[in-house]
Amino acid sequence: MSLSILAAMAAAAGYGGGSVVQAMASSKSAGLKVLREPAYAVGTSITLVAWAFSLVALRYLPLLTVQTILSSSLVVTVLLDRVVFGTRLRTIDKWAALAVTGALAILALSTGVQSDVATPTWFGFAMLALLLGLLAATVLTYRRASATVQALLSGLASAGLAMCARAAHGGTWLDFFLTPTAWLTVGFAILSSVTFSRAVENGTVGPARALVNVTQVLLPGLVGVWVLHDGVRSGWEIACIAAVAVSLAASFVLSTRPPAAARTTSESTAPATVQTSA
Known about the structure:
It is a single chain. By secondary structure, the chain is mainly alpha-helical. It has one domain (about 1-260). Helix content is about 75%, strand content about 0%.
């Protein structure tokens, strides 16, 4: 159990760090041209390692627990955003970071075990429909959608990734990779990465990461409880709900911090054909 929690924390750190590196790439290139940036390749590689750690966590922990721990990636993003882009860190941001840390400690204590109830047969088809729907939405909105819309699409893709990974577990690792649902995670991962890069190209990395986090906690959390029948330790239900609420509220606070003056300067010196807020 403790190793699974450590794996989830390592995944959170990777997602947070990878987000900032991808934001660096998005500040230099627009649209799909960002795929040619070395920084984007580095950020994507970090994210893939984080994804591997999250698979380990999802093998043993309830979906809500893993996703809430992953939401702490915003703390990593905030700290690196301060170092890389010079974004101001307010006093309330420091308290919010401490709140997230405390909430995750409570969540770790309240963690139960995964349900052994079989995944419904319709679940895989629902996930495929979600993937196709997100793909269509991404194609239709990629050129003109706001950073908020792209971040929301990225969050939904991240949620789909987590739900598919959780549903595919149940046997050995070989069984996992032979499960069709597991392979849907690849599509969700690509969509999440592409739409997140577009979001930070048109906005700032903190708010984008926050919206992704909220989406990837709430949707999989509800599915984990109501569909996959995950639970928490007996007597810790209220503490678990409170920890999730505090974590999400603190994430919202962190997402509202103002952009740095350094970013504004970089915008004024960027080529006119490149839209960036970094």
